């Protein structure tokens, strides 16, 4: 499949997720929040679900957890523009507390209802490897319950043979003990740095750049 075909497929998929009502979450959310970034990336980063800010903006990882993720990306010397970021669940699940919409963890049934959207997204994006942020993302990708705190920082393999690096969701750091925040941050950076070798220049990098300039393999975005 060409890059342009993948781009068109992602746009179609995004519209379909917006109309999805396979679980009750969709009818209460503002909109679906689909992934964004280039196809054929080094990394596809999968979170749990959109938050309040993402639900309103229609973009992934733009709230407090997203800002923490951006900080990690900068510290690691990566570029968010070269990552494809998405969520296992495409709509925001929440409960009202006074006038505020508070995050509520998606249940297994809701994550399973969204799984075919994520799988279709993976087939179109075709990342070199995947990072699973948190237990919901890890379970959705790997097809089984995952003890994230025990397996964090390790590469696992999904049923299709794709490499998946498991770690905490950034929201876990935001909720953690303030006294332990610095050590939690360093541990999270250490987890993510397991993917750093993937960003090393590849032998065929010049060939790939030439293909991009010729229009055969230029970056494509879902949005």
Automatic annotation (TrEMBL):
Matches recorded under Gene3D superfamilies: Uracil-DNA glycosylase-like domain
SMART domains: UDG, UreE_C
Organism: Variovorax guangxiensis
Coiled coil: none
Compositional bias of kind Basic and acidic residues: 202-223
Protein name, entry field: Type-4 uracil-DNA glycosylase
Family per record: Belongs to the uracil-DNA glycosylase (UDG) superfamily. Type 4 (UDGa) family.
Keyword Secreted: no
GO molecular function list: 4 iron, 4 sulfur cluster binding; deaminated base DNA N-glycosylase activity; metal ion binding
Annotated keywords: 4Fe-4S, DNA damage, DNA repair, Hydrolase, Iron, Iron-sulfur, Metal-binding
Domain annotation Uracil-DNA glycosylase-like: ranges: 34-189
Gene Ontology BP, a term: DNA repair
Matching InterPro entries: UDG_Type-4/5, Ura-DNA_glyco_family4, Uracil-DNA_glycosylase-like, Uracil-DNA_glycosylase-like_sf
Pfam family, one: UDG
Region Disordered, annotated ranges: 200-223
Keyword NADP: no
Transmembrane segments annotated in the record for this chain: none
